[in-house]
Amino acid sequence: MFHSLSTPARTVRQSDNGKTCLFFSGFAYLGMHQNKQFLGYMKEGLDHFGSLHPSSRIANIQLQLYDELEHALSRSLFQQAAASFSSGYLAAQAASAFAYTKGTVIYAPGTHSSLIQGVTTVENASWEDWSANCLAQINGGEDDQYAILGDSVNPLASKINDYSWLDLVEKRVWLVLDDSHGFGILGDEGEGIISQLPSNDKVQLMITASLSKAFSAEGGVVASSAAAISQLKHLPQFTASTPMMPASAFAWLKAGELYDNARLKLLGNARQMHELMEEVEQVWQHPQLSISLLQDIPGKEPIYPFLLSHDILVSSFAYPNPSGPPVNRAVISAVHEPGDIALLATLIKKYYGLIP
């Protein structure tokens, strides 16, 4: 276990020996959590609004800031309306609760636990087999309405999940997607998975996302049609919850240009890593993502301690089964410099014996 003395950004400092390592882990893809201008917006928000808004989401006094935030979020996600939450987990729970009112619920393989209600078994089939079975169940089943819950991006597999088969559904379906690892990153405007989804009048869409993954703002969002969001705002997950910290909402609204510039930097960094790893068979990276999967070589020292011995920290832990083998990932962010990525790529190639 690696214990740090401070919040990681481009580098991280180890607590037991003070050693500084390049940090290729975590999920702050745009690197805003250590960006001085973004932190300035946070401080400005704290000075203006304090540390919290001490009122219920349905009280007779409401903070106008949240209306402004939700309007901006809905526009960013190409939806009619949005609801903001104090966390991505709570937002996903609200979206899931909404889905259970809309028909027979089907979970996609690997669905994040934040979308799961109660004790539910999630499919462990391949994505291709599940898609075919799901389509057959919907079109051939007795029920008239279905709700599919799943993730847009699988960050542990560096994969964008394929929902193109929904073009073929013949019954009404609600598609409820957790786009935490897509919103702010995918799409020409950072709109996330929405631009890659099929257009079928039978399919109604609800997007939920954490605002911390790309944007470094503690909070969550659910976006959909105006009617759906109106209904969702009557659920206890919204009415009984505390709103997100006003300073985070304020900073998110102010940081549009920062986010855009950081996203372009991230895409360039991801492209560099993809090109450097393109011929390395043991490494997989989706070309639209900044996550590289790194395989251990059987009988050899695992890649995680090898890289750590060269002052590079990557993500390495067993998931979802804590007793299983570790999943090794190098996560590129907008704060990395070309030299950082080149060094990482060189060491990876050395580990696999591709260069001396």
Please give a structural write-up.
Helices cover 32% and strands 19% of the residues. It has 356 residues and is of the alpha/beta class. The strands form 3 sheets. A 6-stranded mixed β-sheet has the order 1-2-13-14-12-11. Helix 2 (64-76) crosses helix 7 (246-254) and helix 8 packs parallel to helix 10 (338-351).
Please render the helix and strand layout as text:
Layout: E1 11-13, E2 20-24, H1 36-49, H2 64-76, E3 81-85, H3 88-99, E4 104-107, H4 127-140, E5 145-151, E6 153-154, E7 159-160, E8 172-178, E9 203-210, E10 220-224, H5 226-232, H6 236-239, H7 246-254, H8 256-277, E11 283-284, E12 291-294, H9 303-308, E13 312-318, E14 326-331, H10 338-351
Parallel strand pairs: 2-13, 4-5, 5-8, 8-9
Antiparallel strand pairs: 1-2, 3-10, 6-7, 9-10, 11-12, 12-14, 13-14
Cofactor: pyridoxal 5'-phosphate
Domain Aminotransferase class I/classII large: 62-321
Pfam family, one: Aminotran_1_2
Structure summary:
This protein has 356 residues and is of the alpha/beta class.
- Could you describe the largest sheet, including whether it forms a barrel? 6 strands, mixed
- How would you spell out the order of helices and strands? EEHHEHEHEEEEEEHHHHEEHEEH
Number of strands: 14
Q: Terminal Cα separation, in Å?
A: 29 Å
Going by CATH, the homologous superfamily of the largest domain would be Type I PLP-dependent aspartate aminotransferase-like (Major domain)
Q: What is the residue-mean pLDDT, rounded to a whole number? A: 96
Q: Which regions contain 5 or more consecutive residues with pLDDT less than 50?
A: none
Outline, from the CA principal axes? Answer: globular
CATH architecture designation of the largest domain: 3-Layer(aba) Sandwich
Task: Report the sheet-strand fraction.
Answer: 15-25%
- Which structural category do the helix and sheet elements fall into? alpha/beta
Number of helices: 10
Question: What's the alpha carbon Rg, rounded to whole Å?
Answer: 21 Å
User: Within the largest sheet, what's the order of strands?
Assistant: 1-2-13-14-12-11
What's the CATH topology label of the largest domain? Aspartate Aminotransferase, domain 2
Percentage of residues assigned to helices: 25-40%
Q: Total domains, how many? A: 2
**What's the level 1 CATH class of the largest domain?**
Alpha Beta
